[in-house]
Design a protein that fits this description.
Largest sheet: 4 strands, antiparallel
Strand content: over 45%
Number of helices: 1
Shape: elongated
Structural class: mainly beta
Order of helices and strands: EEEHEEEEEEEE
Strand order of the largest sheet: 4-11-6-9
Distance between the termini: 27 Å
Number of strands: 11
Radius of gyration: 28 Å
Helix content: under 10%
Length: 158
């Protein structure tokens, strides 16, 4: 509702079958209260569209049990959802972990791959980081591939 100083005249049309209250302002514009509230709501709503990214890469790391980060989200709020697929091309055990709450710790074990040419996938409702550890002879190299299909909302500027 405008300030009292801005209102020149308020006319109450309660006697009509569809009463609406009209506000006449000194700027000569006329809006009924329902129109004003609709206008305010439209301004507050942000338009978004879903962005989908297909990300893939090679895994190559020592089999020393140390975690290597292969992907992470920076500055996305809310966190993206997505599917993670990993292929173990070596014969060493790979463990895939994820950070699903954005705290920086990949503390959720998604799956382990123990066989050569084995692959597994999982779909998550939120994902912030993916890392892989490889167990085996520390002088050996663990290798494979990873693929992520992530989706997240993005504001559309107009």
């Amino acid at each position: 509702m405008p300030d009292k100083d801005e209102i020149d005249l308020i006319i109450n049309l309660d006697h009509l079958p569809f009463p609406e209250r009209y506000i006449y302002s000194s700027s000569s514009s006329v809006l009924n209260e329902k129109q004003k509230s609709r206008t305010k709501r439209k301004k507050k709503q942000k338009k978004t569209r879903e962005i989908k990214d297909d990300i893939c890469g090679h895994i190559r790391q020592k089999c020393n049990g140390k975690a290597e980060e292969y992907w992470r989200s920076i500055g996305l709020d809310p966190l993206p959802s997505g599917s993670v697929t990993v292929l173990n091309s070596s014969g060493y055990e790979m463990t895939v972990r994820a950070d699903t709450n954005g705290n920086g710790n990949a503390d959720i074990v998604l799956f382990s791959l123990t066989e050569r040419d084995q692959s597994k996938s999982v779909t998550l409702d939120s994902i912030a980081k993916i890392e892989v550890t490889c167990e085996g002879d520390s002088s050996q190299i663990c290798h494979g591939m990873y693929s992520l299909l992530i989706a997240y909302p993005k504001d559309i500027c107009k």
